[in-house]
Amino acid sequence: MDRRSAIADAAIDVIADSGLRALTHRKLDDAMALPAGSTSYYFRSKADLFAAVIARITDTSRAEFTQMSTVEGDPVGVTVRYLDHLVTERAAQLRARHVLMLDPTVSDADRAALAGSLFSGPGAVELFGDADVGAGYIALCEGLVTVALGSRAARAEVFRAPVVTYLKGAGKL
Asked: What is the value of pTM for the model shown?
């Protein structure tokens, strides 16, 4: 992993664990045991750190969803596995994303980028061949992730029934 990605991961952990106010270059230098000023060499401002976090979450999401969908082509199975993976293995990314999306100091452009960071609108349209079905699918997945993140008790099977119900109702199963 390159240094920029490692710093973005450390920033995600700080935001997820301590909130946005705790995110400083000094805190990241300390968390990564780097000499003072190291993270500011790579990311000059907090806005640059936000951009790195957003890019890291988005890139991770795209790569993992693509990998999962090539292993298993069934939309329900892929969705359930992906959602379960999000809330179990990537919970820190989800928490950091929610913190950033809700903070009034984060720009509208960054919030819009975060809104599309977990699920691809164009990918959903391609998958289902319908913009409305794709948008509904993403809204369902976003809601399931938010509820699961709040409960910390979700497992893969909790996701299956709502996904199947939505896709059946949309005529996609």
From this structure: 0.88
**Rounded average pLDDT over 29-41:** 94
CA 75 – CA 173 distance, rounded (Å): 9
Q: Are 161 and 76 in contact (CB under 8 A)?
A: no
Burial of 62 (0-12, 13-18, 19+ CB in 10 A): middle
3-state secondary structure of 41: helix
Pure H helices in the chain: 3-18, 25-31, 38-42, 46-71, 75-89, 91-102, 108-115, 121-128, 131-151, 156-169
- Chain centroid offset of residue 69 CA: 17
Question: Token pair for residue 113?
Answer: 């980028």
Distance, in Å, from the CA atom of 111 to the CA atom of 139, rounded to the nearest integer, reads 16
Give the position of tokens 């820190």: 92
Q: Whole-angstrom Cα distance, residue 92 to residue 108? A: 22
Q: Does position 33 have pLDDT exceeding 90, yes or no?
A: yes
Structure tokens at 88: 């179990």
Q: State how far the Cα of 159 lies from the Cα of 157, in Å rounded to an integer.
A: 5
